[in-house]
Design goal:
Elements lengths: L13 H5 L7 H20 L6 H4 L1 E7 L5 E7 L4 H6 L3 E5 L1 H5 L12 E3 L9 E3 L11 E3 L1 E2 L7 H23 L2
Antiparallel strand pairs: 1-2, 3-4, 3-7, 5-6
Helix pairs in contact: 2-6
């Protein structure tokens, strides 16, 4: 005769589980190690002319809601976004340019960026020679600029494989 229980109750101590995700916990340490590995690879693969972009990287690790941890890798150089995402494509105006119909009273807007996948198009006034090859002021809707160099995204798989190999080596050492 088999005995089958009608219900099973399992109690989990949330406080004990949550401590793994706080600073000093195992999950937090693993996240910190992955962030450090990604940071190292991002610095190696960052485009460089002067080294400012490479030296502007920073990584931070923080608990994110219950039972989650995340690391954030940033490049603090003011031009990092342009190098990472590129400057080729349609020009998009921000809310200030749109509000002023692309021609504010104090000259042409400086709040223009180039991006893909946006629906609000703007115009950029290109200054004439000697600042450009245009003989007169010219309005442009697109630019052919620098291609995107998304080194942060491209280095994640490399960093993850290295981190995973280190974790596997550590797990084998426990046997």
């Amino acid at each position: 005769m088999a005995i089958t229980p009608g219900s099973v109750r399992i109690t989990i101590d949330d406080g004990q589980l949550a401590r793994f995700f706080l600073p000093g916990g195992d999950v937090f340490k693993q996240t910190r190690d992955m962030g450090a590995t990604h940071y190292r690879h991002a610095r190696i693969w960052a485009p460089r002319r002067t080294g400012n972009l490479r030296d502007s990287h920073d990584v931070s690790v923080q608990p994110n809601r219950a039972y989650r941890c995340q690391y954030t890798l940033t490049a603090r150089a003011f031009y990092a976004d342009y190098v990472h995402n590129g400057t080729t494509g349609p020009i998009h105006a921000d809310k200030y340019s749109i509000r002023n119909k692309f021609f504010p009273r104090k000259g042409f807007p400086h709040h223009l960026w180039v991006s893909r996948g946006r629906s609000t198009y703007g115009l950029m006034k290109v200054r004439p020679a000697p600042h450009s090859w245009y003989p007169v002021p010219w309005l442009r809707a697109t630019v052919d600029g620098q291609m995107a160099q998304p080194w942060i995204e491209l280095t994640f798989p490399i960093a993850f494989r290295e981190w995973r190999a280190a974790q596997a080596k550590w797990a084998r050492s426990l046997r």
